[in-house]
Automatic annotation (TrEMBL):
<dbReference type="InterPro" id="IPR054502">
    <property type="entry name" value="bHLH-TF_ACT-like_plant"/>
</dbReference>
<keyword id="KW-0539">Nucleus</keyword>
<dbReference type="GO" id="GO:0005634">
    <property type="term" value="C:nucleus"/>
</dbReference>
<dbReference type="Pfam" id="PF22754">
    <property type="entry name" value="bHLH-TF_ACT-like_plant"/>
</dbReference>
<dbReference type="GO" id="GO:0080090">
    <property type="term" value="P:regulation of primary metabolic process"/>
</dbReference>
<feature type="domain" description="Plant bHLH transcription factor ACT-like">
    <location>
        <begin position="14"/>
        <end position="83"/>
    </location>
</feature>
<protein>
    <recommendedName>
        <fullName>Plant bHLH transcription factor ACT-like domain-containing protein</fullName>
    </recommendedName>
</protein>
Length: 100
């Protein structure tokens, strides 16, 4: 993930280029977009591929002109946690106890 400054007349806007690559399985897009929304980030542009693996590249910026505590590390951690929660939830839903 790379941090970039966006101009467009708003010098204090922070923008990020977010790249995610993980094994195919489940719908990882929705949990990632939910995290962006919770963090007050707006997706300006995104490309997603789900052929052989899940891949996403997105440019996101903060809704607020200044948002303290918003940095690459926080966004990266939130995205990873969202994917892990989603995968763990999907794993639990697949396991069905068999009663003999």
């Amino acid at each position: 993930m790379k941090e970039k400054r966006k101009g467009e007349g708003r010098e204090n806007w922070k923008g990020f280029l977010v790249k995610v690559i993980c094994q195919k399985g489940g719908d990882n897009l929705v949990p990632i977009l939910e995290v962006f929304e919770e963090m007050g980030l707006v997706v300006l542009h995104a490309k997603v591929s789900c052929n052989f693996y899940f891949g996403m590249e997105a440019i996101v910026v903060s809704e607020e002109e200044e948002q303290d505590g918003l940095d690459v590390k926080n966004v990266s951690q939130a995205v990873v946690e969202a994917i892990v929660r989603h995968v763990e939830g999907a794993d639990r839903s697949i396991k069905v106890p068999v009663v003999n």
